[in-house]
Amino acid sequence: xxxxxxxxxxxxxxxxxxxxxxxxxxxxxxxxxxxxxxxxxxxxxxxxxxxxxxxxxxxxxxxxxxxxxxxxxxxxxxxxxxxxxxxxxxxxxxxxxxxxxxxxxxxxxxxxxxxxxxxxxxxxxxxxxxxxxxxxxxxxxxxxxxxxx
Amino acid sequence: xxxxxxxxxxxxxxxxxxxxxxxxxxxxxxxxxxxxxxxxxxxxxxxxxxxxxxxxxxxxxxxxxxxxxxxxxxxxxxxxxxxxxxxxxxxxxxxxxxxxxxxxxxxxxxxxxxxxxxxxx
Lengths: 149, 121
What we know:
The complex is a heterodimer of chains A (about 150) and B (about 120).
Chain A: H1 3-52, H2 56-78, H3 85-116, H4 120-147
Chain B: H1 2-26, H2 58-90
């Protein structure tokens, strides 16, 4: 007599909990993407500042940090388990975006090193390659963010 | 019999609450009239330290509103960096030696860089 209603209550409690946990997975991905976007944005600003001031050593150092943080960001996003199809797509886009950012950082560092070694052609080629990766990453990162809104 | 009715009533209430929570998560789009105010970003020592959403969704709503700004701001900063690195590479003049590091192991940040992103949104 009592057992059956208790089962109903337990099932209801389970149903109550499911939507919350499902939303929480996408929310965690959203928060992770948000935090790491800020971080790589700050790193990129350091690269820009050093380049504007024509400090190739500092630019190279900042570019390497941008590269490392982009890889950390990719690992953090890879550890997330989105709960919806949109979340899964956003995760894939973000993974590719941060991989492109890592490549951009690598090319920027190479450009700075080439500049220091007075290899101008190589510096220009690396800077151009880095810009291509950066622009692709930009597009993908913004698209990932829009999917999680 | 009365106990059974009470239990069923409670179960129905919980189901209704569950549906309410589900619909709240489904409709989490930011308002269409988003403001374009600049948001200053602070340097975090550990970017994985994140704020969690609370049960009533207030924190989540704030994050949703800020979400697109953060990605767009980061994209703007990266695009600016790309342009500046290209300009530096294409520059035929000599580099600015003063202020740049002097040794290969002198790894320090750009002086005057307060760790805040200059362009967000």
